[in-house]
Every structure is written in C-alpha cells, then in structure tokens.
Specification:
The protein is mainly beta. Helix content is about 0%, strand content about 50%. The chain starts with a strand and ends in a 15-residue tail after the last strand.
C-alpha cells in the first residue's frame, strides 16, 4: 500500500552500520520481503507482481528489518476487527 516502507539496518564492517529504506511510492504498490539462499531481498512490487525496485543484502550482514505500515485512515488497526 502506498506509504508502506521497510527500514533495513546493515553491518558494513568495523563498528559502523548503514540504514536503507525501500518504500511503496505509488498507489497500488506494496513492499515485499524475501529471504533466499543467504540473501535478504526487499522489493517494491506493483499490483500485478512486477518488481519495480529491489534491494539485496547478505543475510549475515542484516542487523534489523523494520516494517512501517501506513496507518489506517479510519483510525482503526487494519483488518483485525478492532477498529
């Protein structure tokens, strides 16, 4: 959903880290996360499933993956029936 974004914190060696962000920039797009063969892949995907942008990181270097979903405009908590 437009506004969703994922923050990736990566160990770049020594005592330093680097933070990357991948966001759903247009209506109908979403952010997907995959972990395959030692590689973490974060992609911005269209409604049809086509990847627009993809960021890949070695999984042993990823310190944190933080998902930031866009808040529900009605003030609820999504589709869990509490809002």
């Amino acid at each position: 959903m437009k506004g969703d974004w994922v923050e990736i914190v990566v160990d770049v060696g020594g005592a330093s880290t680097r933070t990357y962000e991948v966001a759903a920039t247009r209506a109908g797009r979403r952010v997907e996360i995959g972990n395959r063969r030692g590689v973490v892949e974060v992609s911005e995907v269209t409604r049809t499933g086509t990847a627009v942008r993809t960021a890949r990181f070695m999984s042993n270097r990823v310190l944190a993956l933080v998902e930031h979903p866009v808040s529900d405009e009605r003030g609820g908590h999504g589709n869990d029936g509490t809002g």
